[in-house]
Write a structure and sequence with these properties.
elongated; four-stranded antiparallel β-sheet; alpha+beta
């Protein structure tokens, strides 16, 4: 009897989660937790030094899975957390990374992957 109760509870939980996810997708959200992407402005990370002349190194990344402003902000925050880096992402999949020091591509990829996205190029 206990097994049946646990099984029913798991099935109900799966149905509820799947329903919420599908509603988010129908409202135009990407499933990242943005609740439908209806917000017109999302707080993007702020970098103290926004003078591009101070960043002699640059890289372009192609990041898979960015679909909304929340996704862009998550990727930018992850990359901006690397010292001396300023990142700007744009839909659908571009990220421009500026750096004051030579760039280590492996650390950029690791930061993006830690944010839940994948670098494809």
């Amino acid at each position: 009897m206990f097994d049946v109760i646990v099984f029913v509870a798991v099935v109900v939980a799966v149905i509820l989660v799947a329903g919420r996810y599908l509603r988010t997708l129908r409202r135009g959200g990407c499933g990242c937790g943005c609740a439908g992407g209806g917000e017109s402005h999302v707080a993007r990370p702020m970098v103290a030094d926004t003078n591009e002349a101070h960043y002699p190194y640059a890289a372009e990344l192609t990041v898979e899975g960015m679909h909304c402003e929340h996704c862009l902000a998550a990727v930018e925050s992850a990359l901006d957390g690397i010292g001396g880096v300023w990142a700007r992402a744009s839909l659908p999949d571009r990220v421009r990374v500026l750096s004051k020091d030579p760039l280590d591509r492996a650390s950029l990829v690791a930061a993006v992957e830690a944010a839940g996205y994948r670098v494809t190029g």
